[in-house]
């Protein structure tokens, strides 16, 4: 079997789909992150995709090594391109052997998978009402952004507002609802210590990205003021970006993104390394249906995954949502806060190619919000 072509589709609200075709009629789907550089990713995907035309799609590790090992390697652009291509190759391989991808990675390690739901939006609001909605749909775990803009040193009033939101959730649900709070890299080290200490009283499931990954030396200081598990990893690419995280041993939960870190097998390798250091895994997956389906394949065969992010109804999904481009929508059916492990071959997806092609014609321009502090300086989103 040989790869004959690669197709890239730009799909609203903020997804890039890749389809790899073969001379035996099998195709595979992958997903790349558009971020704020959609056209750059698409151009790079076509450029790198040409390198594997005529190659055997079943030789995934060989192709991954060749795509990754350029002189300038790593980084989010290269990382997401390699990830999308790698996902599509696994989809082909699973279809070729008529098995879910996880069966080719050692088989299932679980019967079911716990999932959580986002609430509150970019600037968190109405969190109790939204949490009640999620609980009514069977979820027993939610995540919300902690705060809006926070300067390097800011007024405690903003910290108190975060505390009041979490307190309202605890008053409404007690400990029947698990709560995760995402600092989103918006909080600098001085205020991150203040916020982490303030939230200690609410016994959170975890706190995420308490500082940006380039400030990872601050994780240890923040860990000293809280017993709440700390999570990070959504912006890291390949095993090598996780090396210091593992060596330091301060982080409790890693969050690799299958659409950024290098794909399915790379995510599985990172999770296995985390298991060696007694760390949990909660993969990052706020994007489209293909990336989420690929993440489910990793979850199915990974024992230290304890919960999975999912993006159905997330506040970024404007105009279209996960189910719109998938024909077999039942694979994203959540029951009582859990989802069954996938059963179909490959990624288990049946994509609506006609709709994808129609939406691709409309083009895609997505940029994250641009925030500023009260003094006009740039704020982290």
Automatic annotation (TrEMBL):
Pfam families: MR_MLE_C (PF13378), MR_MLE_N (PF02746). InterPro entries: DgoD-like (IPR034593), Enolase-like_C_sf (IPR036849), Enolase-like_N (IPR029017), Enolase_C-like (IPR029065), Galactonate_deHydtase (IPR023592), Mandelate_racemase_C (IPR013342), Mandelate_racemase_N_dom (IPR013341). GO terms for biological process: D-galactonate catabolic process. It comes from the Bacteria. Its EC number is 4.2.1.6. Keywords: Lyase, Magnesium, Metal-binding. It is an enzyme of class 4 (lyase). One of its GO terms (molecular function) is galactonate dehydratase activity. Residues 124-229 form the Mandelate racemase/muconate lactonizing enzyme C-terminal domain. SUPFAM superfamilies: Enolase C-terminal domain-like, Enolase N-terminal domain-like. This is Galactonate dehydratase. The lineage of its organism: Bacteria, Bacillati, Bacillota, Bacilli, Lactobacillales. The gene is dgoD.
